[in-house]
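User: Can you predict the 3D structure for this chain?
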Amino acid sequence: MASRQLNLQRVLSLFRVLLMVETVSGARGSLTEAHIGPQFSASGVNQTPMDDVSIQCREVCSLNVSDRCDFVRTTPDCRSQGGYLNYLEGIFCSFPPHLLPLAITLYAFWLFYLFLILGVTAAKLLSHNVAGVTFLAFGNGAPDIFSALVAFSDPRTAGLAFGALFGAGVLVTTVVAGGIAILRPFTAASRPFLRDIIFYMVAVLLTFTALYLGRVTLAWALGYLGLYVFYVLTVVLCTWIYRWQRRRSLVYSMPGTPEMLSDSEEEPVSSNSYDYSEEYRPLLFYQETTAQLLAQALNPLDYRKWRNKPVSWRVLKVFKLPVEFLLLLTVPVVDPDKEDGNWKRPLNCLHLVISPLVLALTLQSGAYGVYEIGGLVPVWAVVVIAGTVVAAVTFFATSNSEPPRFHWLFAFLGFLTSALWINAAATEVVNILRSLGVVFRLSNTVLGLTLLAWGNSIGDAFSDFTLARQGYPRMAFSACFGGIILNILVGVGLGCLLQISRSHTDVKLEPDGLLVWVLAGALGLSLVCSLVSVPLQCFQLNKVYGFFLLLFYSSFLVVALLTEFGVIHLKSV
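Assistant: Here is the predicted structure, written as structure tokens:
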């Protein structure tokens, strides 16, 4: 609960970091046009002028095959505002028409791997730096938040953000919550449930109103963030009151040992608590060399765990290994649970060179990294030289056995590098989803509520199901609502606030037809159903309630897809 009490100041720290990044990126246009040489051009940016800027990129599929490549290269609507790869140009220019299915298949695999990168980065890194820089809730919701930030940076992809946030909300409150009730029926905590669902309904109502008005003003964006701060304070206050009342009742019932009873109730001791790692410790102590420490620190595979895991886990681990190795190489991790704080002298010194280089090459898709100072030396070379000097001084001034006093600073470097890795991956996800939408003529909203929402939520869903199987269904159920409240309030609020600070104008919202209203209505209806049905069941969630939620999501998905393809015709709002 201590991490929840620190949420407010960490949200503000996160906002300052992201505001700094967005403020710097606001000058990207003038900087790149004036100083970046012809050898570099941002992915998707073509300098060929186009007379009619109203032409939509979706019209490419209606052209002749021979004209599609030129159309994609010269149409402004087909250009991406970031990212390393131009996916539309890859589909229509790099692959011949008869190999279009192959291109789509490769893009699907790459999309899956991008979601894997997002999940691994958030789970392995951001959650470990909780004591120094960030907080656990942001680590779990980082893919959703960064996807929303990237999507809101371009008016053409704002529908992806709303589709993903609303789609994830419907998915979590129906499929995930229903799955928990089916796996392990339980009695929900009444006050936390009512508190979370009411706050989430208010957040959905704010978003619905913003969509209806067609814009998000500065006051509206600040209102999102203010509501989340108020939610955090409410959680902290309610938790403090609950603990105070419980301690008081225990004092009256057993005045001799109130704290001992409280500890035994809250954290039961397992009978199978033997630490088998003692068996693998060497009998004779020996001092590891610097090379051995570096090789051990860069090894992402635990051979003992590998032997005991099933084949499915091993297959997934094979896909994760390159990502985990790259993250170990580029991102320092400060772990307060370890005595040495996870201090690895050779690897941490290497981080002082590689992490700033990653920052330079991932900020605005590398536009600043290749900028040449005075037309002679690129920024990335200066970063490498400066990092090498700092790493050399740190290496000779520290030892392998004891972390330095400034070790906590590595947590900030690790958080910033992790955030930019996630931002880079989220940018690629948004770009590839938009490209698939152009090819299949799908709206951004339906892509957001399906692929983007599923990809960002699948990790949390499996985590909640695992908690339910282990006998903690109430904890898993609470995580469902706490995570999506953070995603929608910080995702929309911070995304629009950063866009307003960069463009100095209100964020214009253009819903993709009727589907957005169907999505918002379905989310509101699911919340109202839960708000009414759960108290009527005396907060006892059984399998019948779980199957009802699954049926609700299936019906919603069918209606959404039929609306997208024009089978269901409703009067336009």
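The first helix runs from residue 2 to 5. The CA atoms of residues 146 and 423 lie 6 Å apart.
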